[in-house]
Amino acid sequence: MKKAIITGGGTGLGKELGKLLSKEYHIVLLGRTKEKLEEAANEIKEAGGEVSYAVLDVRSPLEVEQVSSTELLQGDIGLLVHNAGVGYFGPLSEAKGGELEAMFETNVLGPIRLTKGLLPQLEINKSTILNIISTAGLRGKKNESLYVASKFALRGFGESLQKEYEGSGLRVVNAYMGGMNTPFWDETDHISDRSRLRSPQEVAEIIVDQYQSKDEIVIDSKK
């Protein structure tokens, strides 16, 4: 059975993708919190799936290098899902120190480093890379300048790889979804009514239904 590697796999969309994809892949969950990874892994096992996990902070180049070289991330990789993400919102004038770095380390440099570290395996196996980007990678948004900048960067990375590996068998899919009703918004009032947002399960179902046939997936945030 081929592996599907999912960053940010302990909660939200990453966990829901793991559940659905476990029907055809051995799931490998990556994330910063061991307890959340264990919980997600147990849910996948209860659903009959095969799953492993490893603690990884994608912001750390050293951790990415170390985990990429382990046996867990070697072998027959069918799918690599860049799902880990972080966002800070508000006027640029009020941006706090470290927010820009945190978003680019998580949303851009992490996916780039992990892709590069696994590239030999991805090329050999003619894998699919799935970038979870958000509609912030499609257009500018008020009070989201730094977040949007990071998502535009990931979009550019994905679109460039699509051209670089065109015809090679290695696929790159960019998924753009609006906000989801997840703990992502717990520490901000940027979204006033989360009830109108899609659930992670809804978004995961759409992505899993479309990623094998489309190179670009756009999902509206409203139900």
In the CATH hierarchy, what is the superfamily? NAD(P)-binding Rossmann-like Domain
N-to-C SSE string, H for helix and E for strand: EHEHEHEHEHEHE
**CATH topology assignment:** Rossmann fold
Number of separate domains = 1
Shape: globular
Counted beta strands: 7
Rg over alpha carbons: 16 Å
* Widest β-sheet, arrangement of strands: 3-2-1-4-5-6-7
Give the uncertain stretches in residue-range form.
none
User: Count of helices?
Assistant: 6
The CATH architecture can be named as: 3-Layer(aba) Sandwich
Class by SSE composition: alpha/beta
The CATH class is identified as Alpha Beta
Major beta-sheet overview: 7 strands, parallel
N/C terminus separation: 35 Å
Describe this structure as you would to a colleague:
InterPro entries: NAD(P)-bd_dom_sf, Sc_DH/Rdtase_CS, SDR_fam. It comes from Rossellomorea oryzaecorticis. Belongs to the short-chain dehydrogenases/reductases (SDR) family. By secondary structure, the chain is of the alpha/beta class. The chain has one domain (3-219): Rossmann fold, CATH 3.40.50. The chain is 40% helix and 17% strand. It contains six helices and seven strands; from the N terminus they run E-H-E-H-E-H-E-H-E-H-E-H-E. The protein has helices at 12-21, 34-46, 61-68, 99-125, 145-164, 200-210, and strands spanning 3-7, 26-31, 51-55, 77-82, 128-132, 171-177, 216-219. The chain has a seven-stranded parallel sheet, sandwiched between helices. Helix 1 packs across helix 6, helix 3 (61-68) runs parallel beside helix 4 and helix 4 (99-125) runs parallel beside helix 5 (145-164). The radius of gyration is 16 Å and the shape is globular. The N and C termini lie far apart (35 Å). The model has no long low-confidence stretch (mean pLDDT 92).
